Amino acid sequence: MIYRETGQFKSTYENDHSIFPLIQDKIAFNILMLIAFLFVPLVIDSYWEKAILIPFLIYSMAAIGLNILTGYCGQVSLGTGGFMAVGAFATYKLMTIFPELNIMIIVLLSGVITALVGIVFGLPSLRIKGFYLAVATLASQFFLIWLFNKVPWFYNYSDTGQITVSERTMFGIAVTGANAPSYATYLFCLILVVGLGFAAKNMIRSKIGRSWMAIRDMDIAAEIIGVSPLKTKLSAFAISSFYIGIAGSLYFAVYLGALEVTESFDIMAISFPVLFMIIIGGLGSMLGSFLGAAFIVLLPIFLKNVMVDLIGLSAVTAKHFEITTWGLLMVIFLIVEPHGLARLWSLAKEKLRKWPFPY
Amino acid sequence: MSLDKIQSIPYGKEVIKIKNISLAFGGVKALTNVSFDVKKGEVFAIIGPNGAGKSSMLNVINGFYKPTSGQINFAGEDRKEMMPEFAAKSGIARTFQNIALFKGMSTLDNLMTGRLLKQKQNFLMQALYFGPVQKEEAYHRDKVERVIDFLDLQAIRRTPVGSLPYGLQKRVELGRALAMEPEILLLDEPMAGMNVEEKQDMSRFVLTANDEFKTTIVLIEHDMSVVMDISNRIVVLDYGKKIGEGKPSEILKNKAVIDAYLGVAD
Amino acid sequence: MSVELLNFIETVLNGLMSGVMYSLVALGFVLIFKASGVFNFAQGVFALFAALTLVGFQTGQIPFSHLINELFGTNLHNWYPSLHSFLAILLTIVTMIILAWLVERLVLRHLVNQEPIILFMATIGLAFVLEGVGDLMWGSDVKVLDVGIPSGGSIWLEEATIGWASEGSEYYGMYIDVLNVWATIIAVILVTALALFSQYTKTGRALRAVADDHQAALSVGISLRSIWILVWGISGFIAMVAGIMWGTESGVQFSLSLIALKALPVLILGGFTSIPGAIIGGLLIGVGEKLAEIYIGGLLDIGAIENWFAYVLALVFLLFRPQGLFGDKIIERV
Questions:
Q1: Which of A216, A247, A332, C314 could be cross-linked to C269 through a Cys-Cys bond (beta carbons 3.0 to 4.6 Å apart)?
Q2: Is residue C98 part of a domain?
Q3: Quick one: closest CA in A to B98, which residue?
Q4: Cβ(B99)–Cβ(B191) under 8 Å?
């Protein structure tokens, strides 16, 4: 009764094409944003920051990036870990070369650098398609990880091969480094995710997004209506890499603080989990990117609580259970709902719209 | 821009001249020395038995296949081959024999893809989505809504096209081509698999497009009664060769054509 | 002969033999792709799972013993001290066939007519499940696998070749691991048997029909499901062979599943649907990798380029020939 569009008339095409056409959705979203920006920073503690909210925001960013490339443009990529590594190392190098540069600018620049790298590694997509491309993106994963591991310039010749973040501030408050307060790191990530999230949604609902989807659904037909496969695919690679690069940058600078490339950006640590997020969340859905990221962050915590704390299994066995559960969920989701959590959400909304008179 | 050139050609003059086009895939000859002209503003039909090379001919015209030899004179310029993007930019739109819609997108979005070439804002502006982008979107939406009205697609505006019945998908595909506001429209069997009423509707759309928007139409169709009714001129292909060309009344009397369709009496 | 030339020959020979391993894994991919249209990402984990199971049977380990011990505080270890390798291999084959049946029953059957990419992602899920279950069943410690295949350098070859070098140069003969020689022999037998099977038996013909066109095969009464089980079973068997070889060489551990990643460039090179492509592609990658490691890696002094070199080789090749080594020229139709 409450959730329905009756009486809401659109008199302009601009209104009809807005992100939340329903007033109820808009209100709900605004309340969510108020909570996220005003309430959460007041109560956030270090556990919520490090274990849940920051990983959630960073994974959401990476998932948006991969969703642009895979979900919207149809180019499967297994190289997410490699591109996140580019973002992380770009941030590290920029920080050490330009100590005075504002951290926000460093993060965005890291995204731009990753975008350029993404264009280079996207070039094979012009000649090859489908699985061949998926395998080719693995090449970028292996090559990039190898590069950051073997060329000491990238980690400033440190003995361990580790890169470590130094403290940077925004408005006098530390957002990176060990002394950064929880609310500051959280807000820093939140602002980036919300801002860039809207930018992604805007691109998707305008010309460039339609070009991506046209290439995804039928590249030949797209070419014949004048969509250039070259520009479209490379733009998807570039913009996707931009988001993934920023995720990598935040992952290093805000979340981990110090990392070693082979361990942190391994195909098993990043590429597959992020792919998993967009499948579970929903390919080609913005909401899905967030739902998938939330799922991936919460599932291990839930499993650990149940298996280690409740049943009393060892951490190693619990890890094996976790891997199995991931795999099972992935298969089950693909069988039951290939469109992911986002589709379940919209089905629920559809039900709600008709409630309490379903027929 | 060749779009301007096409627009400056007077109606009734040749806009595409196919000169001795041959096309081969390895050893298989799809087209052999085919020549014909398409005049601006006419409804031009390509007919022939299955496997005669009709679709290949359309693919050559919009640059999807590169001919092995011969030339295409397009808007007064001789070319060895066309390029799909160039063809689209020059005002050539087409539909496909096996529907080539974007199945994951709604009817509205499919039609909006027809406007892609005419949208000029860059991606940074699109990411910010303020003033000019919004105006541009609304402007093109308005154009698309006219096509939706013309083809009676209002009810399925938001439906993903993958779930539409065949006849409607064909109509959406025509809509996408019309949304491009093409000068030349290539239709590959637009009425295949339709019942009589759907064929009548489709014929009406094609004739209206030709009549009101002055779009030149090149059409492949198997239903002879439709072809004879709506086309101004016809070319007949058989085994990749041209065996006849002319007005419908002339084609009906053409011995070679009758033989190709009915078989030669021994 | 000069020492350089002899070293070159040795490198090529070793490359060919490690290429055989790639070919084997790639073959598993190709068989499944041809028959069920699935790019089976779990192929490497199949090999790991098979090797784990084999060791488990050999040493009589009780499945899930770690888990049971942790849950109930028991102290379970083994059924029996050891089992003959031959029996253990047979039991493993049975396990792999059951696995194939389960995959068809629980996964493939429900994903018929889905897009290839969905199927591919389902096999990533499958890989996770198998990896987790394998670890839960048999534990994740590194295991020694020994089914009686000899390994180590061939003394005979060393002695035979030591005199080949030109007078006065320091040369100690060629080094080739006997295990690799055995692997090559077994692979050759396996591939020949497969080829004969698919060419000359009724089931083999059905298999080829399914590979060509699912609909058409169905329409002449071939049961897709039994063919799928068969093909996944065969691939499981091939994975087992690969698992035995790699496991003997470097122990059974998680990294064994990564051989699948090494076989992927072979697929790009040889094409997803070509069996000769998988074999020749594997050999080419094997040789290219070894040569590159010595001649390029040594030159640049950065080492360990084998992680990505094969991919780059395959990609460069692909730029010139998008259809792969043996693929037909792609004609796109609309």
A1: C314
A2: yes
A3: A221
A4: no
pLDDT digits (tens, 9 = 90+) for B197-248: 889 989 999 999 898 888 999 999 888 888 888 999 999 998 888 888 889 8
How long, in residues, is chain A?
Answer: 359
Query: Mind telling me how many Å the CA of A187 is from chain C's nearest CA?
Result: 34
- Please name the member of B62, B113, B123 whose beta carbon is closest to the beta carbon of A210: B113
pLDDT at A176: 83
Report yes or no on C325 lying in a domain.
no
- Residue C38 domain flag: yes
CA–CA separation, A183 and A169 (whole Å): 13
Domain that holds residue C162: 3-320
Ordered by start, the domain boundaries in chain B are 1-90+224-266
Query: Are A87 and A245 spatial neighbours (Cβ–Cβ below 8 Å)?
Result: yes
CATH architecture group of domain B1-90+224-266: 3-Layer(aba) Sandwich (3.40)
C-chain CB neighbours of A146 within 8 Å are 304-305, 307-308
C83 band by pLDDT with thresholds 50, 70 and 90? confident
Chain C contact set for A134 (CB, 8 A): 39, 120
Question: Which of A220, A225, A228 comes nearest B176 by C-beta?
Answer: A225
Sheet holding B233-238, edge to edge: B92-94, B184-188, B216-220, B43-47, B233-238, B241-246
Q: Write out chain A residues lying below 8 Å of C124, CB-based.
A: 272, 275-276, 327, 330
The pLDDT score that the predictor gives to residue B266 is: 54
Residue range B156-210, pLDDT digits in tens = 888 889 888 888 899 999 999 999 989 999 999 888 888 888 899 899 999 998 9
Residue C204 lies in a domain: yes
pLDDT digits (tens, 9 = 90+) for A52-74: 899 999 999 999 999 999 989 98
Q: Which residues pair with B23 in a beta bridge?
A: B31
